[in-house]
Amino acid sequence: MLALYFAGKSGREFVAAVDLAAPASEGARRLLNVFASVVSVGLDNVELVGRLNAAAFTDPLTRLPNRTRLVEALDAAVAAAGEHDATLDLVDLDHFAETNDALGHGFGDLLLVAVAQRLQQQLDPRLTVARIGGDIFAVLGDSALNTPEALDALFAVPFSIDGQDVQVSGTFGLVRLAEHDGSGADALKDADIALKRAKTQQRGGHFYFSRGMGVEIRERVRLMHALRSGFKGGELYLAYQPQVDLATHRPFGAEALLRWRTADGRMIPPDRFIPIAEYSGMIVEIGAWVLREACAELVRLHQAGHEAFTMSINVSQVQFRHPHFVEVLRRALDETGAPPEYVELEITESMAMEEPQQLADLLAQVKRTGVSIAIDDFGTGFSSLSHLQRLQVDRLKIDRAFVTEITGSARGSSIAEMVIQLGRNLGLSIVAEGVEDERQAQILHALGCPLAQGYLFARPLAPQDLLAWLGQQPVERAA
Ligand code: C2E
Ligand code: CA
Ligand code: CA
Questions:
Q1: Is residue 425 part of a domain?
Q2: Which of 314, 349, 453, 456 to mutate for ligand 1's pocket (most ligand atoms within 8 Å of CB)?
């Protein structure tokens, strides 16, 4: 009889008794010794791997499955979505950050553990509960059990933390896996989109992800990437829409309008891509390029003999508010040699209504470069007279909607007329935009609006076409 001893960590050593016909030789004993210690090390490793695994898939604070484990479970649930109607629900604790700051991280941790326990103990055991980070939990399982109502009920009773009753509420973002195509990780993303939407709508509420939402957001993200590379790849260019004197129909200037033609020849309208450029911050860089490009074109037009021609350039709010805007403007003027007195910046009326003093200061700085300022889309907001005066604007652009209204509605010319009167009283220049027919032009002129822009005169034109168009017009008037 021979006894083999296998040493092991954490009290898991054991002994094996082996029947032998004859005593083992010295050589055999040594080999058996080595064998026993190799087995011991092997067993220790198995246990270690087990523990590493558990750590990789468990949230250490709450002992719940973590994000990695949830994604695995989601992959399985997505694969089985045909047979089981499952829902993923993300639970975001409302005002957790404030609680954490006010009462300390220790308290925050206790609260998270309490929420974890309640979710796990009081929800149907067939549902999987996970903590996927910070104050966000996930519940996965049968759609009939995993509902916002079931979760709301759990949060109705206060949590007892450190002897105190704490009332906590949650905001939920849900996705029905049947409503979703893609991997488990994609389902998690969709639920996150729904959660963000729920949070912006109302805390303590819930929102179900819909296919339309995902498509819309993915499309926006796709467009954002395309715009970034399109801008680098030179797919953006400027078109110039002439502005004319209504009395003589002589051109005096143009508005630079941004265009995007993608590599496959599609035109994406500015109303679609400019909001994306603004949202992503790209407008700062794109807008700087627009300023330089439009100034350079102005110089070329002057050199081509259109000496008094003016250039109007649209500036978006994000761009305008950027701390380096005035510097960027100055550089565009300097580097192209564009004379500032022939350059006009168009800012929208909604911008003009924000933080009056700050805007007035900024505009004063901008005006010191020598350029002038127009308020675009005028009439859509509610700027007050005194406010406009303080901003030192030079020109109002009557929004197209009011120009259309002149001939389109029984109410007649009321708003356009008011804007024209207002501008005249303040000594501002006035230009009407979106003039499409002769009657509108006549009425505007009769109402005292001296300048206009619109399809009646010309569409936005490529630089070459603008030059050709200018060649056919009556001689320009001095602005
Ligand atoms: P906006 O500044 O109000 O520009 C006038 C828009 O009216 C232009 O649309 C122009 O093509 C269109 N338009 C001109 N005449 C007529 C007309 O007679 N009838 C009709 N139906 N439309 C007319 P577009 O080029 O699509 O630009 C849309 C908006 O995109 C612009 O509105 C402006 O807000 C923005 N945008 C364009 N270029 C730039 C730019 O370089 N920078 C910034 N920040 N925004 C720009
Ligand atoms: Ca404009
Ligand atoms: Ca406008």
A1: yes
A2: 314
Mutate to test the pocket of ligand 1, among 257, 286, 404 (most ligand atoms within 8 A of CB): 257
Asked whether residue 476 is assigned to any structural domain, the reply reads no
90 and 160 together in one domain:
yes
Separation of alpha carbons 403 and 263, rounded Å: 36
Residue 156, strand partner residues: none
CB 339 within 8 A of CB 372: no
Strands 2-6 and 14-18, by their bridges, are antiparallel
Question: Confidence class of residue 29 from pLDDT cuts 50, 70 and 90?
Answer: confident
Read off the pLDDT of residues 251-261 as tens digits, 9 standing for 90 and up: 999 999 999 99
In a domain, 62, yes or no: no
Residue spans of alpha helices (H) in 80-159: 96-103, 105-122, 148-156
Beta bridge partners of 385: none
Domain of 456, in residue numbers? 219-471
Give me the number of domains the chain comprises.
3
Are 161 and 251 within one domain? no
Residue 242 Cβ contacting ligand 1 at under 6 Å: no
Cβ of residue 243 lying under 6 Å from some atom of ligand 1: no
Indicate the residue among 209, 235, 253 that finishes a domain: 209
What tokens were used for 57?
């898939």
pTM, two decimal places: 0.68
Query: Rg of the chain's alpha carbons, rounded to an integer?
Result: 35
- CA separation for the pair 229, 438 (Å, rounded): 42
Q: What is the pLDDT of residues 181-210, one digit of tens each?
A: 788 999 999 999 999 989 888 778 898 988
Q: Quick: pLDDT tens for 379-426.
A: 776 566 677 778 889 999 999 999 998 887 666 557 888 889 989 988
Distance separating alpha carbons of residues 241 and 463, to the nearest angstrom: 10
The neighbouring-strand residues paired with 238 are 258
Rounded distance between C-alpha atoms, residue 458 and residue 438, angstroms: 13
pLDDT at 414: 75
Closest ligand to residue 257's CA: 1
